[in-house]
Amino acid sequence: MKKILGLLTCLLILVFSLNGQDHVVTGTVTNQADGHTLPGVQVVVQGTTIGTTTDMDGKYEITVSEDAVLEFTFIGMTREVIDVEGRNVIDVELAPDIAQLDEVVVVGYGTRLKYELSGSISSVSAEDIAGHIAPSFETALHGRTAGVHMSAGSGKLGQQIRTRIRGSSSISASNQPLYVIDGVPVVSENLGSPGNEPTNPMADLNTADIESIEILKDASAAAIYGSRASNGVILITTKRGEEGRTRIDVSSQVGFSDPTNKVGFLNREQYLDLWEQAAIASFGEDVDWKSMLDGPFPFWRDPDNPDDITKGPDTNWEDEALRRGETQQYDISARGGDESTQYYASISFLDQVAIVNGNSFDRVGGRLNLDHQASDRVSFGMNMNLNRSRNFRVAHDRAFATPMQMIALTPLDPTHDPETGELNDRTIYENGLIVRKHSHFDTEVFRNFGNVFANIEILPGLNFRSEGGVDILSQQEVQFNGRPTNDGGDTGFGFERHVNTKLFNLENYFTYERIFADNYDVNFVLGSSLQQADYEYASMSGRGFPSDDFKRIISATEAINASSSGTGYRYTSFFARSDMKFFDRYLLLISGRADGSSRFGRDNRYGFFPAASAGWIATNEDFLIDNRTISFLKPRFSWGLTGNSEIYNYAPRGLYASSDYAGLAGLYSTTLPSPDLKWETTTQTNIGIDFGFINNRISGEIDYYVKKTEDLLLSTQVPASTGFTSVYTNIGNMENKGWEFMLNTVNVDRDFKWNTSFNIAFNENEVTNLEGEVISAGIWRVMEGEPIGVFYTKEYAGVNPDNGDALFYLNEEGDETTNNLAEAANRIVGDPNPDFWGGFTNNFSYRNFDLSFMFQFVYGHDIYNHGFEWQASGFRWEDNQTVYLYENHWQKPGDDTYYPQPRLYEENGYGTSSIQIFDGSYIRLKDVTLGYTLPRDLVQRANIENIRIFARGYNLLTFTDYPGWDPEVSSPNTADITTQTSNIQQGWDFYTAPQPRTITFGLNVSL
Amino acid sequence: MKTRIITTLISLFIMAALITSCEDFLDIEPQTAISDDAVYDNHEGVVNALYGAYDRMAGPQLFAGTSIFFSDLLANSGEVGWRGTFVQYMQMNTKNLDPNDGYLTAKWVRAYKCIDLANNVLDNLDVVNDDHKERVEGEAKFIRGILYQKLVGFYAAPYVEGESNDHPGVPLVLTPTAGIGDDDYPPRETVANVYESIINDLTDAKTLLSEYTGAGDNEGRATASAAAAFLARVHMSMGNWEKAANEADFVINNFGGYAALHDTPRDAFNNDAYTSEDVFMIIQSETSNAGQANDGIGTFFASLVGYGRSDVHVQDMHLEKFEENDLRGHITDDDQIVRITDVDDMNYIGVGRRPGNVMTSKWGRYYANINVIRLAEMILTRAEANFRNNSSIGAEPIDDINQIRLRAGVDEWETIDEDLIWEERYRELCFEGRLLDDIRRFRREVIIPEGTGAGTALPWNSGRLVLPIPQREMDVNPNLVQNEAYQ
Where do the DSSP E strands lie in B231-295? Predict the structure, then answer.
């Protein structure tokens, strides 16, 4: 009926039009951006079917009535509507459509047009992260995506990266997102040996192979990953071949790095001055402070002038710990193919020398992604990625042997023994240079990400897809500490460990896509998934090597701590999704996933996770379609349940582990049974709006979300008098709510182009219910009504100006103070969770030059500089002290300083308190790139498509008041980042190396 | 054709779905642990749990470390200097304890872990083979008894002879934990009741283990003499002098009298096996030890090539307590020293980390056994108990004391008094974890050696010489009261 009506209308219009249809209009259509003519532009008389297209030169000719209205449309350009008003020549410029409506976004089990989404997904393209110099891609996302907070562990390479998408949603289970590469959920947790900081298995993926990264943030986007989606999902899609000639891209980058910051420690003169002050403060004016130095510092005097204290060693140990790093990266890729077969192939090499003395990372790898269309109905393909990465590591931040702890050594400790010329082995703590020379800790990983897939079109629109994926990782750690090192004892110490992880993933699903009656677009997905992951470990140590030349355990007289073990988990799932669009305006998505997990007992192992979302593309409504100011407007709403099961593999069981007492094998209990344990679930509601103004020159997204997590998988504290300290239960609620803003603008779009992108996210985390439970981990606490992991310790009240004593607040409330740290009450003195964070990017280009810079900021998180308990301890010990303390300590009555009076070997309020807690807010110029593309006609003579040279700087500037090395810290705990301790202990700086400031020069060539 | 494809595909999908829904697929067993229900239903499992209790007891949190170390730091008046960077130990030295201290928390947690294992063993004796039953029961009671003695000794105000002793001790848990219920939040039992339980356990253990008196094959495990030695300590704390003298005498007689002492005091330490002087030791080996670089008692006390953090330095105040000829006060000063075997004396000048300080040679090796009770202690205990009791059970007090003095190379005494016994005990047993108990029994003072309040004298019963109940335990269990000094 409708069709008939439409036809009638058309006819009617035709009749009217015929009346005055004698007016000829001609003109040329050009691209506003570059002035080139545009062939193939549709020119239609509005309200009619009369029309034409522009020719090869962008010209058109059409016969219309004098009062007709012409509509010019072209894919990728904004629509222009022009009244003829009797003119005969109408030249038209079309502006590029800035918020590309044809932008495709990867969602779980399929792709969608971005403008059709009703959930919240952040998307990052290959261009955004191209050439990112770091072992793994994650840090490139920080500052580019609203609501995603990433922090690198430290300036050491290949360390695990703390990722929080819309805050922390769990206390005891992991808060890290699920990583999915080409449809396979991969191993992303730490596999490094337990005695060192967690390593990052994502460093095995080459950034240059990534086509796009989608971050599924709200429940409707993530719920298709059900029980593992509460922390968000990061979908990584690798590059694929394209039909056409073979295109070869070569890129190379070389550069160097330096620490973003040096803290500054005392030189000889300052050290002696502060020592004298501290000794007098402790032992009185008559103290022989010089001879007190003779014990700890055998070489502090100049042998020729033992009484001239201005002479003698003056070592800057910070310069020994931190050095200039180097970096080089080469990527070569080829993509192309014919109508039926397309390929993408690449090889890559990355070599980085860290700013931390002794640490380096390299990776070499290759990828082949193949697609083949076997027939009209059947296609298949495979992705294969083989990489080897090596991390030459140093000891963890809390070990004396770590290079950063060299800064505890004083300027009075020479690096070399002046008597023997060898490295000084009589430093107050172990000389890290001896460790560097005589020990190594090499981790080598072979990784194979791969999958095969086939797609069969059963009926038009109905497809069946089967994907089988593997993620196989083989890691070998070889550690050796030679005789001169502490850890080597006097016999040498070797340690080796092997880890194999084998993950298999099978996905089978139907998709059905069809447009009914022109206006009803439907997309259904129905499928099942199965995953099995097995982890195998073997390790052994040895002591008693004949000499340091022998480093493998076969040469050890005592092979000790031989161990092998294994663990694993399995998932089975069913999922379904219905995604519909009506009249190109109304969006409705409903999805559900049922997951079964081996981690839970038989009665609780299945969970169901539904989600729904709706959106309204208001600008496709009649009343807005021609609005020239508002070019895009889409309010959307979503709701859904997601789960979190990322806990210890056998958490519900009461287990006994084996023990060894002098050869007597035994058993001891490790966990209390908790047979009713089940998933924790997060209900997330999201309200958002996507907008575009003035031809989408201003566009963006605003989201408000509330994430409520209930039945927290909580490691609940129980009285230790039971023999246990905790039991897993489903207790408690946590809430995250926040705003995310994303704004993109095209400021100038002529020969000179200038785009800006700004994003900011506010998140408020609160533990709303713990049934009275309080969880402590060091000075961190989880308490009802507070954000996760607040700092709970004594509050420093400053210095007593009369006598230099440190003062602390005595009671939980009130202003009464005490100079006895032990008497002071604990208070909540800080919060390591940021209030807001985001990024600000500007891209400029003018002719062949391009320039971009990105600022990234985090505001309102506090950092506990635990290392300051030694580095700024007022000579409780002989450790070297910060210049900050030297310049800010009490010296005489009336002084109002940050630090109390240093007193040699005494604790004048320098113990753990808020004196070590600082605001960690910062703004960082994270990425600056200046590029020049060689003139095309010049390079094309050499048969080269494109040559671009560039210079790039990372972390060039950091603005912060934080007095430690770097405000970008995450826990240096040796615990994996997915554990409760690590969830709670955020913002922990303990001799944590700063981030590198890197400058590179590079070349991109396309053939 | 088309139908066939569709049929195949749908059956494939159904197959996949079947695999997926297969219940067994999700049943995977842990490879490095077993479920609790498989432990206590058989003889082997119960015995394994007993061995597990020994293993937990041998950790650095208990007898292989801080059970010894805490006592010497808490009771230190400046005989040693703490120069290490571990804040917790520094606070212990300055008697400024923090209930959040991880080390004193770890001790509490570990002790109750062992106690729960012992309780489980005692609760499941019915599946133990008859010929092992007595020994298993005896060992489990021994472990439970000595751990409660450690707990009540560190975390509760001292037992005072002749008083009611109804002040708070520690939670007394004598049944195994099954799940967490209301009963699992116990209050602190009175000191008197905790002591009663300890005496019951150790007395039972002594009887049940009567076949196992020497060391030999039973190295590192409970014996009747080990139980008697701990009973002697307990009775000394309670002022039961006669009982203490009897228990000490029992131990000495089972070791064949004085001949079991080594020729020199130095020989009693850093041994790999029980020697004739050892009543109870914690065995250390390459695979089972208290730690190397951050834990384990040796690492704090040693300054040798490649071993020791040189955290505890012997001060003049200590050395002044020795007579000139006393072997126990001699110092080896030789920069050629590499290992502890190169040190002939009871002290040496450190050669490793922070060199140049006087170090004790009692603790100087990674894997040496940890002396817990030596025969010399029992001889001194018998002397003291007899002296206080005006008796001569086994020997005259003066003869016992002189035996120890002779071995140390100093002149015999003609008469003794309480002060002389105190001094002799200090000289013989320093750094072996006896000081805190002795300070309490001899009603001595502890002088805060450094830090805030340095020089302040704390009486023997000062609350600052008692550890706080760990904060985590206070937070979790509302029925507990904190010790007075930390309220």
Answer: 278-282
